[in-house]
Amino acid sequence: MAAREQFFAGIPKIQYVPGAGPTDVMCFKHYNAEEILMGRTMEDWLRFSVCYWHSFCGTGADPFGFPTLHRRWNEGAPMESAKKRLYAAFEFFTKLGVKYYTFHDRDMSPEGATLEETNRNLDEMTDLALQLQNETGVKVLWVTCNLFAHPRYMNGAATNPDCHVLAYAGAQLKKGLDIAKKLGAENFVFWGGREGFLSILNTDVAAELKHMATFFRMAVKYKEKIGLKCQFLIEPKPKEPCKHQYDYDAMSVIGFLKHYGLENHFKLNIEPNHTTLAGHSYEHDVVVASALGMLGSVDSNTGSPDLGWDTDQFPMDVRNTTLVMKVIIEQGGLQPGGLNFDAKVRRESTELEDLFIAHIGAMDAFARGLRNAVRMIEEGVISGMVKERYSSFSHGLGQKVEDGSATLEDMEAFIKQNGEPRVTSGKQEKYESIFNHYI
Ligand code: XUL
Ligand code: CO
């Protein structure tokens, strides 16, 4: 194949042009990578990552229609197009100025007839990926194994009723961890693709959950054995493709990890489109995971809350990005995680430049969210009001509740002495008005 075919020939490196006009969509108006906010560069706070599967493997096909996105890099025999895809991807990363990418093993490299052949393909492709990483300085935010697309996984991978399939998933995972080490991945993601059930009648839930925990334990053991330093992440999703997914939402994953004693080995990769599918508001799982010290990374996207499925749209809503960045700053950043655009252009957005416009728009939405959250935190109005709202826990009985030493007898004695509590306003609309001041 031609070594360095250009796939985005007419598109130069994207620049920061503050004050650019409304139709100037091929430049950053807000994302200024080097600018320092609260002691860190924007690039460092945001840690953007481009995802391989949507942006380079996606064809625009949906259950009702044929492909609409005809990418030159997807033409040719499987290994030939895999290489073209990789070159196209690295050209895109560098022109966009994003330092990280994420991929599934099978996005980068096609399956062969046997596991051995598949692994040889992966060796060849990851050799090339390593070369391109070294040339460009672009790094792997996370890698993951696709344990859901191949028909062998139709009844699940780690939770399959047949141990033969579980074994295949384990063998695939072993190689996935090896390539994570080879490419210096900073994280490794487990999304429970088909780990769940469609009918409770044919499902042994207790057995499946136990097998899933065993699968994770094997992963931890192998990670330690090979000296892989990356952070393990589980990505919750409530439904799709299964009717019920075991990793329903942040709280259920944390409950699972604690139940099986795995909580010190994993954090969460929260995808807001999954959060809204679980019936929560956009920011809910980011907030919950962070509050419990478990927020590791974010699959930055959005859905359409009026639709019941995973539309994986680019996150363009500044209100949402502000809420997410507020949480990220308050927990001291996301590193070694980041903001991965698990998002795809609409199947109607057929031009190559749409891929750039989508990422630039979302990066700018996050840059604005970051600036808003920084102002909000530095001025401290909302945090001051929240602190005041909970101030009764800073002394006396409240302090005892806080440190866990209070008893029901203390409660009774307190009420006998102090009587009815004074009802205080929650002031929601005041908070909302102040929040809007920063948007
Ligand atoms: C599926 C999804 C996945 C994971 C990685 O909804 O989000 O792409 O992020 O397997
Ligand atoms: Co995702």
What's the number of structural domains?
2
Ligand set = D-xylulose, cobalt (II) ion
The counted number of beta strands is 12
User: What is the mean pLDDT?
Assistant: 97
Protein structure class? alpha/beta
Radius of gyration: 24 Å
The CATH class of the largest domain, by name, is: Alpha Beta
Number of helices: 16
Explain what the structure shows.
With 439 residues, the chain is of the alpha/beta class. It folds into 2 domains: 36-379, Alpha-Beta Barrel (TIM Barrel); 397-437, no CATH class. It is 46% helix and 10% strand. The chain has 16 helices and 12 strands. The protein has helices at residues 42-46, 52-57, 78-96, 105-108, 115-136, 163-182, 205-226, 250-259, 272-277, 284-291, 318-330, 352-379, 381-389, 396-403, 408-418, 428-438; strands at residues 36-37, 40-41, 48-51, 100-104, 139-144, 187-191, 196-197, 231-235, 244-245, 266-270, 295-299, 339-341. The strands form 3 sheets. An 8-stranded parallel beta barrel has the order 3-4-5-6-8-10-11-12, surrounded by 4 helices. It has a two-stranded antiparallel ribbon with strand order 1-2. Helix 6 (163-182) links the parallel strand 5 and strand 6. Helix 3 packs parallel to helix 5 (115-136) and helix 6 (163-182) runs parallel beside helix 7. It is globular, with a radius of gyration of 24 Å. Bound molecules: D-xylulose and cobalt (II) ion. The site of cobalt (II) ion has 5 residues, from loops.
